[in-house]
Specification:
With about 290 residues, the chain is an all-alpha fold. Helices cover about 65% and strands about 0% of the residues. The radius of gyration is 18 Å and the shape is globular. The N and C termini lie far apart (about 40 Å).
């Protein structure tokens, strides 16, 4: 397992920020699923109370990356075809977008969630292609890993420029650069969101250290390391730094890309073929034109 996050450091980096609580709807969903006889109608009713979340959930359910053989037209049908536990993971990721952004429709926030969705889809598709058995967990990590960015941007309108410089420099990790420049880190804020919203330890740890690559690559926990590697490969393949903040250089991939591929038993020359697979699952990427 990766090194536990320093609680004193968290308190310092959290100053001035409020972590959005897990919505009541998610709490009630979890309670219903853990009951002796969970009821699909009750679960569908809870989700349908928020039209935005329900609609976006169906959009994701019907996307090619989910691999369903027929179109799903209702949350009840989604419960049946995906299974309750899988649907809850998906709803949680969708709800995050609505809760953290607070209705913001500015260009950067829109770009943030579009990029996170592309990374999440790529994470899931890669996990399926590599037969790792963690597609839903990978999707969740993809959606949650940059959630802290929305909190920082709400207070620092210049943050996209800070993030671009962080990606393009090679002397520090991206989180170290952020801590020095803005006295916080989207890694740590994302970790706190993940914990508050009930993600398990492996997913939370990957989010806590997704730019602290040397720490994650040294983890002795196979699930953590694979989830981390899926996330970094997904970011690279969709060109996330460029899409998110117009970064011309991805210091994480340049420094650690070879080790990430080693974790997944891939060679650099295979990425063209992987890119074709992702394209076939409707995930656009830099290896397919």
């Amino acid at each position: 397992m990766a090194t536990p996050v320093d609680l004193a450091k968290i308190d310092k980096l959290l100053e001035g920020f409020t972590i959005p609580p897990r919505p009541d709807m998610l709490v009630k969903l979890q309670e219903e699923i853990e009951s002796d006889s969970p009821d699909i109608k009750t679960i569908a009713h809870l989700i349908n109370q928020d039209i935005g979340i329900a609609g976006f959930t169906l959009k994701v359910v019907n996307s090619p990356v989910m691999g369903l053989s027929r179109k799903v037209n209702s949350i009840e049908h989604a419960c049946i075809f995906l299974g309750l536990h899988r649907l809850i993971k998906l709803v949680r990721s969708v709800a995050l977008r609505f809760a953290v952004s607070g209705g913001n429709e500015d260009a950067f926030t829109h770009k943030l969630w579009n990029t996170s969705t592309q990374v999440a889809n790529a994470c899931s598709a890669l996990a399926k292609h590599l037969d790792l058995g963690m597609a839903d967990e990978a999707y969740t990590v993809g959606m949650f890993h940059d959630a802290g960015i929305a909190l920082i941007f709400d207070q620092r309108p210049d943050y996209p420029d800070v993030l671009r410089h962080a990606y393009e420099q090679t002397e520090e990790s991206i989180s170290e650069y952020e801590e020095r420049e803005i006295a916080s880190s989207h890694e740590v804020l994302g970790f706190l969101i993940a914990q508050t919203w009930g993600l398990d330890a492996a997913m939370s740890n990957v989010i806590a250290y997704h730019h602290s690559c040397s720490i994650m690559l040294a983890s002795g926990e196979a699930t953590e390391k694979q989830l981390f590697a899926l996330l970094k490969l997904a970011e690279h393949m969709v060109g996330a730094p460029g899409k998110l903040c117009n970064a011309s250089f991805d210091s994480d991939w340049e420094r650690f890309g070879a080790q990430v591929l080693d974790v997944l038993d891939l060679e650099d020359f295979q990425l063209l073929d992987v890119g074709e697979v992702l394209h076939g699952m409707d995930v656009e990427n830099i290896y397919h034109h």
